[in-house]
Design a protein that fits this description.
Tetracycline Repressor, domain 2, 3 domains, two-stranded antiparallel sheet, CBS-domain, three-stranded mixed sheet, mainly alpha, MgtE N-terminal fold, 22 helices
């Protein structure tokens, strides 16, 4: 961390972004003036000074802060900032930015620049970056690695992105259990630095089989003459590389882990999971769920081209158009009823809107429960009964309220009763669909959140219109 960073711990990301944008705009303005009047030596001097200030400010920032700034800038300005970043920071920044932004940055680099950046990364970081790199660059990069690094990269790439093996880190400290704590301390002092997030040392035998862990706090507070075997924890939380990464994230939260060993089927230590990877995984999953519920297929660069954004959004917009057409045809079935009682046109959006809101609440709870692994076959029926009970209570309460309002507005107690009945039935439909939609998507191997808000809105709109107008036709006309 630079001295400037240390002096300004209270400085927010937005303030840093504002400072960089202001310096960038000043530099661009002077550059334009200089290009229009090449004889303006003073402007050129100021332009160089502005460029120096901008580079100095970027040099003071953490790679994660620069990644945030790059994501917040339009493409042209983003590439200008990217060209001013110190080369040794490029790899860390590429790992921090979103996939969509990373694509634009890599497209602006030539093969030699990419190779220079990738050469500074560890095996697990290379595995994260490799899918976004040109195929020929990846091949050349693999050839340049030593045998151990090459094997580690191939190992990490062999796992799916939602498996522990794709997230594991290969940098760790291992020790034997038959040495004293004093020997361990001397060994650690000889190391240049410890791998990040090292809160424990991994105890292995001569074959690399994991026997336990030695937390750093135990190492520091126990008698240096004691053996590792006497102090270590012999049954640590450990993962296999093919374990589900999201289940591992839940374990990290449940047991307050900072790091954990990863072992193969024979118990041999092959890597470790660290909290930074888990936090990134949770953030990406959260962002993905928000996008999926809105019907977006993948992470979208805010400043992506119009055509790219259109391609990303058209599928569920088309689906929504179809469902909206279905809802309009439902209304068309009752045109005669609406002509006879105009109040129906004013009241029916209320039934549909409340149903959509309630359905989205139910879907959010169900998707969350699925993500946390809290749903199973035995609990599904109970959960469905619970959600239907909540919908029934809300329908009777709020349907009664809007029924009274309808009575006072239109002086018709029968219209009020129809309103209450329609709202209650539509909330029950919303609860039923709120449970069934994500569970059906999961059964067919899809993300339970994928387009769920679009689907539930379609069901409650069409269903709400049909229920309300149908009841009105039966009992009011």
């Amino acid at each position: 961390m630079s001295e400037v960073e240390a002096r300004k711990p209270q400085e927010s990301l937005q303030e840093r972004l504002a400072q960089v944008v202001e310096l960038l705009h000043q530099y661009q303005l002077l550059e334009v003036r200089s290009s229009e009047d090449p004889s303006a030596i003073l402007d050129d001097s100021f332009r160089q000074q502005g460029l120096t200030e901008l580079k100095q400010r970027l040099d003071e920032l953490h790679p994660a802060d620069i990644a945030f700034i790059l994501e917040a800038l339009p493409l042209e300005e983003r590439l200008t900032i990217w060209s001013l970043v110190q080369t040794e920071q490029d790899g860390d920044i590429l790992l921090e930015v979103s996939d969509a932004v990373r694509e634009t940055l890599i497209a602006d680099m030539d093969d030699q620049e990419i190779l220079a950046v990738a050469g500074q990364l560890d095996a697990d970081e290379l595995a994260d970056l490799a899918p976004d790199l040109p195929r020929d660059v990846v091949h050349e990069l693999m050839e340049a690695l030593d045998a151990q690094q090459r094997e580690r990269v191939r190992s990490a790439l062999s796992y799916e992105e939602d498996q522990v093996g794709a997230l594991m880190d290969f940098e760790m400290v291992t020790i034997r259990d038959d040495v004293s704590l004093e020997v361990v301390l001397r060994y650690l002092r000889r190391l240049k630095e410890l791998p990040g997030h090292t809160d424990k040392l991994f105890v292995v035998d001569y074959d690399g089989i994991l026997k336990g862990i030695l937390p750093i706090k135990r190492l520091l507070v126990n008698d240096p003459e004691r053996l590792v075997a006497e102090v270590m924890a012999s049954e640590p939380v450990a993962f296999h590389p093919d374990n589900d990464a999201y289940e591992a994230a839940q374990a990290f939260e449940r047991y307050d882990l900072i790091s954990a060993p990863v072992v193969d089927k024979n118990g041999k230590l092959i890597g470790r999971l660290t909290i930074d990877e888990i936090v990134d995984l949770i953030r990406e999953e959260s962002e993905s769920e928000v996008l999926n519920m809105a019907g977006l297929r993948e992470d979208e660069d805010v400043f992506a081209s119009v055509w790219k954004s259109v391609r990303n959004r058209w599928t569920w917009l088309a689906t929504n158009l179809v469902t909206a057409f279905v809802a309009s045809r439902v209304i068309g079935l009752f045109e005669g009823s609406i002509e006879k009682l105009v109040a129906l046109a004013a009241l029916m959006p209320i039934v549909a809107g409340i149903g959509g809101n309630s359905g989205n609440q139910t879907i959010t709870m169900i998707v969350r429960a699925m993500a946390l692994g809290q749903l199973n076959a035995s609990s599904t029926a109970r959960l469905l009964r619970k959600e239907l009970g909540v919908a029934l209570c809300n329908g009777l309460i709020w349907g009664g309220v809007i029924g009274v309002v309808a009575y006072y507005l239109y002086n018709s107690w029968s219209l009020g009763l129809v309103m209450m009945g329609a709202m209650t039935l539509n909330l029950l439909l919303a609860a039923l669909m709120g449970v069934l939609i994500p569970m059906t998507l999961q059964r067919f191997g899809r993300d339970p959140a994928m387009g769920s808000s679009v689907l539930i809105t379609a069901m409650t709109d069409s269903g709400g219109f049909f229920i309300f107008l149908g009841l009105a036709t039966l009992f009011l006309l």
